[in-house]
Amino acid sequence: MTRNDETSPPLPRADPSQDASAPPGYRALVVVILSPLAFALVFACWTLFAMLGVELRRDLALGGVGFAVLLAMPMLAGGLASLPMALLARRFGGRRVMLGCLLLICPFLWWISQADHYLEFLMAGLGLGLGAGALAAGLVYVAELGPPRHAGLALGFYGAGMVGAGLSYLLLPLVSQAYGWRMAPLLYLLPVLLIAALLWLFADDADAPASPETTEDGDDEAPPTRGSPRTRVVRVACLLADWQLWRLAITYSFFFGAFVALALWLPGHLAARYGLSLQAAALWALPFTLAVGAGQVIGGMLADLRDFRSLRWWVSAFVLVCLFLLSYPPFSMRIEGIHGELTLRYAAPLWGFLGLLVAMGVAMGIGQGSLMRLIHRDHGSDMALVGGLALTLGGLFAALLPPVFVLGGEWLGVRTVGFMFLYAALVACMLIMLADHARDRRRAR
After folding, report:
1. Is residue 180 part of a domain?
2. Which segments cross the bilayer (predicted)?
């Protein structure tokens, strides 16, 4: 089996392992350590509204739909900002864009602590979403300056910054109880400024990013950072018209968006389903976020060892089974037996529900880590474009899910409707993968 058994030949790309100007170990170490910390803090800021849900719904008199829209705001702005910020990071340097985005979310954190009206919280949520530029820029930064031999491990470790949701699960309820919920957003101001200062002092950008248009015989065309803005826009539009850039990005966007949505939805779901306090429900949801983070590191390591293109099929199938089981709500069944009526009752215990969540979380993390390594391998010269596209699609998908979960629950009257919708979305994603595979086989003939 060849490496590209499921895909057509990759686009021409520069091999970072053969780059004579590869960054020294110190720079790679700084990138691999500071970038995930920035990722974790931005992600923790996105979960503010979810962990302050009880207080916000009480003070603002919010219904389920209004609160779901509030949860979706950071993801909506983040999805729209990811691709442009990734392209800016490719042009001006990932460190500069990360710094700008980290500093940009600080006034919005302060605004949340002072806001009184629903519209103010919506606007502040949109501002927090601009922090996704730090995620996209960090992805480009790690891809450029991370260790070339262990790019998958570095990208997986970077993606593991999603466990920042667990930071909110642990800290925000405690701070809210001790000092009031308005102090909770201010909790992240100092760490965000600290990471920005460390990036400013100890990190730097790539000396000379490799041009995507450098050919194997040494002929160079104008790099994307040169020329008029119209030329750059036309080039990006032509690249986006190529299906090769979308095939892995679509699958990655499902895993990314599903995790973001579940990280926001699970504490409230567990609290309502099992009669827990929001703080206790958040602690029960914490293993899921940790499992996804660990899975990302494992997936990146596996993709470093082998191409593992078939891994996305196995991971998707496993997640599909988990979503099918998680979709079952508590129910009763009456059977007319020979000796009378039999009644069967099903209600997943908390430990069983959590076990399925953790298993699914590991699989989702492996899928994200391995897919991002494949994107880096196949489209290394256009990592800003393809990686930014994957984050954009994932952010928009994540923004769609909270309102869909609430509206679906009100329509069907079933609490597990979120898992049902994710099951249907994954089926659609796998059908796209199957059609793509069939098209490649026809071309091979």
Report:
1. yes
2. 28-54, 60-85, 97-115, 121-143, 155-174, 186-203, 245-266, 278-299, 311-331, 351-371, 383-405, 417-435
